[in-house]
């Protein structure tokens, strides 16, 4: 049986993509499956935590023992996360949140008609992780993710600072067979104390390694 190092802890995880609807039948999304977030949730549950997952639309298998809060858009995710943030000891933001949403969603299905162009105006979504960074109280641990295509160290560390995260888990999404929608992952974990460690393996193994590292940061 695993050590219950998270016994008595409340863990809040976000997972999956967000969908930003354009009209009643179309949306802007991304290839996130939610598998990394659910692996993190499952590992936390095994280690004794009370776990809530706020998940965007996903077909991933929902692990046992977790409380699931399904959402669709970034704004819904923000609402659900803010409602649950106060009660959480550790927050892991593994969701791939859409940076933009459609300014005015068409009430009816957009027809091709005889137009050659269709313009969509997008507006920026709020950065949920950054909002949590601002509201974080002492003792709360905030973990973010970063999918990068270049200069991993630089961009990940900058994101950790800017969003006031304690830890950031970065993956280079240009590496084939890792990242979005794959079984395996190769990540670099950075922490606010200057730590940097590389881990690769299944998303379950990476999740377990992340909790091992977070355990060393608790109370520091
Ligand atoms: O800036 P970027 O989107 O790459 O940052 C990734 C991290 O920020 C992830 O942890 C993601 O869940 C979080 N995020 C968020 N709200 C957004 C965008 C990203 O919480 N609107």
From TrEMBL:
Keywords: Decarboxylase, Flavoprotein, FMN, Ligase, Lyase, Magnesium, Metal-binding, Multifunctional enzyme. The chain holds residues 185 to 404 of 404 of the full protein. Catalyzes two sequential steps in the biosynthesis of coenzyme A. In the first step cysteine is conjugated to 4'-phosphopantothenate to form 4-phosphopantothenoylcysteine. In the second step the latter compound is decarboxylated to form 4'-phosphopantotheine. It comes from Aminithiophilus ramosus. One of its GO terms (biological process) is coenzyme A biosynthetic process. GO terms for cellular component: phosphopantothenoylcysteine decarboxylase complex. In the C-terminal section; belongs to the PPC synthetase family. In the N-terminal section; belongs to the HFCD (homo-oligomeric flavin containing Cys decarboxylase) superfamily. Residues 11-220 are annotated as: Phosphopantothenate--cysteine ligase. Its EC number is 4.1.1.36, 6.3.2.5. Binds 1 FMN per subunit. Residues 6-215 form the DNA/pantothenate metabolism flavoprotein C-terminal domain. CTP binds at residues 99, 109, 145, 159, 163. GO terms for molecular function: FMN binding; metal ion binding; phosphopantothenate--cysteine ligase activity; phosphopantothenoylcysteine decarboxylase activity. Its cofactor is Mg(2+); FMN. It catalyses: N-[(R)-4-phosphopantothenoyl]-L-cysteine + H(+) = (R)-4'-phosphopantetheine + CO2; (R)-4'-phosphopantothenate + L-cysteine + CTP = N-[(R)-4-phosphopantothenoyl]-L-cysteine + CMP + diphosphate + H(+). The keyword Protein biosynthesis does not apply. Transmembrane segments: none annotated. This is Coenzyme A biosynthesis bifunctional protein CoaBC. Pathway: Cofactor biosynthesis; coenzyme A biosynthesis; CoA from (R)-pantothenate: step 3/5; Cofactor biosynthesis; coenzyme A biosynthesis; CoA from (R)-pantothenate: step 2/5.
